[in-house]
Amino acid sequence: MTTQPRPIYMDHHATTPVDPRVLEAMLPYFSEYFGNASSRTHEFGWRAAEAVEAARAQVAALIGADADEIVFTSGATESNNLAILGAAEANLRRGRHVITCMTEHRAVLDPCRALEQRGWRVTRLPVEADGLLDPARLADAIEAETVLVSVMWANNEIGVIHPIAEIGRLCAQRGCLLHVDASQAAAMLPLDVRAAGVHLLSLSAHKMYGPKGIGALYVRRREPRVRLVPVVHGGGHERGLRSGTLNVPGIVGMGSAAAIARSEGAQVAKQLAALRDRLLAGLRARVPGLQVNGSLEHRLPNNLNVSIEGVEGESLIMGLRSVVAVSSGSACTSGSAEPSHVLAALGISPRLAHSSIRFGLGRGNTQEDVDRVVEGVAQVVARLRAMAPDAPPSAT
Ligand SMILES: *Cc1c(COP(=O)(O)O)cnc(C)c1O
Fold first, then answer.
1. Domain housing 311
2. Residues 79 and 193 in one domain
3. What is the pLDDT of residues 139-195, one digit of tens each?
4. Which residues have C-beta within 8 Å of that of residue 104, sequence separation ≥ 6?
5. Backbone phi, psi, residue 260, to 5°
6. What is the reported pTM?
7. Is 332 a catalytic residue?
8. DSSP 3-state of 13
9. Residue of 12, 16, 72, 77 with the most ligand 1 atoms within 8 Å of its CB, for mutation
10. Strand pairing of 97-101 and 8-9?
11. Cα separation, 297 vs 301, whole angstroms
12. Within a domain: residue 365?
């Protein structure tokens, strides 16, 4: 029997595998310690509640928060909805204006649209050609009625890192709240919500080697105390901000993933930056007509997003499917023929946007993987170009 080797996984912006240490930490909470963390009358509940509180402290430590500022949710999508809809609803007296950025994830853009449908004004700031938000544009957009600014820490498609501390200072000066979707940044960058002036921050466990279906929202409780109106109503869990029986194994997994990211993140980031640079150098040497999308300097160490002239991204990715698992545009919008809204916001033509490919490196990747991927891309690009009638310079 012959078994095809599995393709190399380089789609870590879509999701990451669960770290074996995380899985091990979770397992007892499915069976042995299966209690409901809200059960106050017996040991089963106490054990679960203790584990939840330990995980809450671990998640808080990753971002420089206090444990009582962490609300567990089902993921970053829910955290973003709670932050945006909840802060808007709680601050109606200030006004009905929110500001976000054109390159945000759908999980931020869509709740903003929902506000718009309820009569709010939404300003969607453009980005510069390198994908970065210019704080001066934000300064111009903030009004007396602005309740909330929502800007991601790092972008999930092109990996660019926004100047969050500067944005935080602006929001503090002008008295509006700052929400940051840090789903992609948490495993890779040191985050300090206080130093950066962040009021609300979304996290997703499955983007940091934890399980899917669990996330957290940081809600600042001091200087200032941020008020939110809940989106999910019920038993009053999580201080009334997010009702529903707690996902204890998921929470334990998220805590463990956060602790690992805190102790090993810097080392992993260094290692992945070296791999990413090797990938880029290899592609540049082997594939003519390659362009990097977004700033290389202000970028997550594990991200590379390139467009390859004259090559259809989907065809390239299909041609590579036995070699490497990657995506074109964002996983959440793929399946639609629309070019990525992120690349469009950078002023990249629909043609080049359709030629884009996103590499998301992760802890499991090696130098050998990178070299195999470079070889695979060079071969498939050469083949596709040979087939195209108006083929630009051939590769290899
Ligand atoms: C993955 C991702 C989300 C969605 O997170 P879920 O936990 O899957 O809901 C939101 N924002 C960004 C930037 C992401 O990368």
1. 8-15+265-386
2. yes
3. 999 999 999 999 999 999 999 999 999 999 999 999 999 999 999 999 999 999 999
4. 150, 151, 152, 181
5. -65, -45
6. 0.95
7. yes
8. coil
9. 77
10. unpaired
11. 10
12. yes
